[in-house]
Amino acid sequence: MLYTNDAYTPHEAEIVEFIKDHHDIFTIRLKFTDPELDSKYSFRPGQFNMIYFYGVGEVAISIVNDRDHQKGRFEHTIQVVGRVTKGMMKLQTGDKVGVRGPFGTSWPMAEAKGKDVVIVTGGLGNAPLVAATEEVLQNRNQYGKLRVIHGIKSQDWLIYQDMYERWHNSPDTKVMMATSAEDPVDNGKWEWKKGFVTAYIPELDIDFANSVVMTVGPEPMMLAVAKEFIKAGAKPDNVFVSLERSMKCAIGHCGHCQLGSQFICKDGAVYPYPACEKLLAVKGL
Amino acid sequence: MSHYYFIPHTKIDQILSYFKGNGYKCLAPRHLEGGISYAPISKAEDLPWGYVDEQKPGHYQITKTESPQAFGFTVPTASVKPMLFKAKETVWKVKRDDSGKLAFESVVDVEKIAVFGVRPCDLRGIEIQDRVFQHNSYNDIRYSKRRENQFIIAMNCGTSHFNCFCVALGDYPRADKGYDLALTEINAGFVAEIGSDKGRELLLYLEVDAATGAEVEHALNLIDNAAQMQHKQLPPIKEVEAKLMANLEHEAWDDVASRCLSCGSCTNSCPTCFCHTERDIPNVLGTETEHTREWDSCFSIDHSYTHGETYRENPKYRYRQWLTHKFSTWRDQFRTKGCVGCGRCVTWCPVKIDVVDEINTICK
Ligand SMILES: Cc1cc2nc3c(=O)[nH]c(=O)nc-3n(C[C@H](O)[C@H](O)[C@H](O)COP(=O)(O)OP(=O)(O)OC[C@H]3O[C@@H](n4cnc5c(N)ncnc54)[C@H](O)[C@@H]3O)c2cc1C
Ligand code: SF4
Ligand code: SF4
Ligand code: FES
Predict the structure, then answer these.
(1) Mean pLDDT, rounded, for B107-133
(2) At B274, phi and psi to the nearest 5?
(3) Statement to judge: residues B184 and B302 lie in one domain
(4) Does domain A11-103 have CATH number 2.40.30.10?
(5) ipTM at complex level
(6) Considering CB atoms only, which of A82, A252, A261 is closest to B307?
(7) CA B43, B44, B48 angle in degrees (round to 5)?
(8) Do B141 and B43 fall within a single domain?
(9) Which of A152, B52, B302, B316 stands 20 to 30 A from B108 (CA)?
């Protein structure tokens, strides 16, 4: 983690831009107010910050963007679900929040070099994989094919549309979308399917044995994705998932995020599939 | 020169004045509200002279006897844990001004505390919590500063209660490390061993003599006696650790869950449990908020509440989390066991659940 000797206390950050993505999803683009901290801060794709909303509390939120790409800013895309996130929805450009981080493990960007990369996300699971996708695109010749599969409830829930378009138009990159609720309308930009993200897996034009899969979404989705890829020939060790559990401290002290022997906050949240396969198979662990 | 010294009871007041002179607040077991608990003391008289305790599953009772001992009881109701990892404390504050600017300030509240009389199991409990709050990926400055400012006088056991089982875990009712001074109470005083420079300085100040061979032998016999009083048995700890994780669907989990009330007395009294939650307490004006850290328990439903799913909604999952964490996954996390065999969780369980019995049922 960044900086000081006290891992519990947040640091002030300013919202340099507030973006409303959808009716209950928004993005805050942040900058530490302390210039020294701001210049020292860095993160790896897949890590998260604890974001503090004054008077209510802290929440674990993935870091969306690649910092170099955004030049001195980092951003978070947040969905309103409860106390803290509801309060955050009312934030505006110029408001202050607290930030601690970055925490947790990261996507296997080094291991993925020379391999085809498949990003499979569901719902807001796309946020934690933006930085990884951008890293592949910025170092395009070091990776094989890039395939991005995203699933959402219905088409109007799609956020990051401009970004997806840019990705889809990048060299050797394809974006594919699935929606389970309705027959999708062709938007003329990328392929849509009715159904689940897994529907795309059997027909992917990649070298499964030499691919790395990174997936974030509801647990049943990630498990189905992992199983399908392994069935298609991907190596289990090359399939990565990101887990979610209640978080209070993010530093392995509060015990809330435990899953078996794991503290998801510091041993995860990104795991190779075999490491969590057994843990996830037992209900209530 | 002998490694053992003899401190007569008559020097206890001198020990207390040494602590006072060196800026320590001294806490020792005292007879309070029907139990023996840690509290500040200022004179030797404050100690629970003559008191003995009886602890059984779901049962705790103290009795005053004619015994000339100050430490004739076993473990105090609570361990040393609340002195280092407080049940509730403010960890940071934040002020908000009219412009919305947030000024964060860490709060580190440290007292120099000398604990007079820490049982060997509780000493091991501290060592285990050190691994959570200090020797972990992140260090908690509050805990660390308190540790640096702590003076520990360990008190070896001369007796065990019915629920004690440190021996079954491969330990012994004798302090092995982590103390400044370790004492064993024999009739008119204590046989003392030095554990640190701080302990040596105190002994020098007391101007005590070496213990005689007979005094040392008496002390060691008392400790052996305490060990022999323990009757509980467990398979070797590594076997317990492996078997629990191999039996996550054992029917005994349902059985114990049907008795367990999820009250959290076990985690509250345990010297090693570290779970906590964090909470914001804003003032009414909206200008300042205190952010607290408060003990939590894996027996509370909120503990596993995550938006979308409460992972351990069923009491069976909560009991299983508790037991497998203490007696298995703790090893993976901290390279040590999560239980020191103090027996408090058994004593304070309102429905007399005995963790050792439950383990034996599952590991049969
Ligand atoms: C590694 C990680 C990355 C995440 N990334 C994002 C993201 O990019 N965008 C996003 O919108 N959400 C993300 N989440 C989920 C987000 O943390 C929760 O939605 C949020 O904590 C809910 O807080 P609340 O106070 O609004 O909800 P409430 O339901 O009121 O929750 C109360 C408290 O419980 C805890 N809690 C509840 N649900 C969760 C949860 N899912 N994860 C962790 N703690 C929880 C928090 O301490 C929270 O403050 C992430 C979670 C994790 C673990
Ligand atoms: S689990 Fe029970 S016996 Fe073991 S240390 Fe905790 S309270 Fe003591
Ligand atoms: S998870 Fe339960 S057993 Fe483990 S430390 Fe927390 S309260 Fe204690
Ligand atoms: S969030 Fe506190 S231990 Fe992981």
Answers:
(1) 97
(2) -120, 0
(3) no
(4) yes
(5) 0.94
(6) A82
(7) 115
(8) yes
(9) B302
